[in-house]
Amino acid sequence: MSGVTARKRGRPRRTESDAAGTRGRILVAAREEFAERGYEKTSVRGIAKAAGVDSALVHHYFGTKEQVFEAAVEIAAAPALSAPAALAEGPVEDIGERLTRFIFGVWENPATRMPLLAIVRSAVNNETAATVFRRLVAAQLLRRIADQLDLPDAELRAELAAAQLVGTAMLRYVIKVEPLASTDIEQIIARVAPVVQSHLTGP
Prior knowledge:
By secondary structure, this protein is mainly α. Helix content is 74%, strand content 0%. The protein has helices at residues 16-41, 44-51, 55-62, 65-76, 78-81, 83-87, 95-108, 110-125, 127-146, 154-174, 185-201.
């Protein structure tokens, strides 16, 4: 028998970088599918086809469609969900302006706005998607903001502040109501920030 080592049959071993690359492709494909088709019309099979992988890999890395959506939401909303960390960098007296400026900064940047917009549209149109989005926002944004407020009704205050910001963002970026949609962002921040501050620290 020659000295050439026989090649083993079977599936080649996947490296960690291969796995990360595959997982990343699936997430990108999922985000695009949810954006184009909405939550209800998106399928795991469709996500797999768009990512160029077998649907079994989607289940392997993420599980159900709901879990894929949650992972896509977490990636798309990551810039906005990092707001509590930014808020910790200054006094509570101007937390309203910092939060307002931070959130609208995410929405004004096309690179972060488009993925977020796609996820929000799915959440608006489907209750399952809305539940996933609500759970993630509550756990990673609202409660962490509330933790920075030394007040008995901190969670309600954080939710009211978020309602002010989300409502304004929906009208400006999703529904595009004029003149709000085309008003200079600094003017919007100047008007909204005091209201957000009042929700967070007012009487």
